[in-house]
Amino acid sequence: MSGQTADAKAASAPAPEATKSQNQRLDQLFAAHAVLAAVCGGAALLLPQLFGIFFRGDVHDELMRFTPGEGQMRLAHVVVRLYGAIILGQAPIAWFARCSTDANLRRGVVQAYFFVFVATVLVLVKALLTEDFWHASGWLNVFLFGGLCASYGWVSCFGP
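^ that's the sequence the OP posted. Answer follows.
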């Protein structure tokens, strides 16, 4: 009976070539995520004023303002920098996860990112639809995080 179980498992397992191809696509997703996280996280950490365009849409004012005078603007810069630090911290996680051969670790990273990006998209959509301080360019964030959400969701459901 155990022979039938092993045969059934072997028949239902994906071909080695298909698994290798899926792993390569996941490696590419991890690498793209790592680069994107390093660039965006580093920019948020070092130049938080650039991210004001998502709130008010005034690009010129944001590029010229390096030392905000308003208390709320300073607070916003601290929050953007903190979030930038978290995003930047994802870069080595994603980069080194692509080199791991531990399937459970890779699956855990994929599922964690999927959850994070689902929550991020929901929070952004709610804010864009209910708050008046958001600018239309805030939808770029929804599409960016939505793309990451869809990518990690696909891998989580159908990947290796």
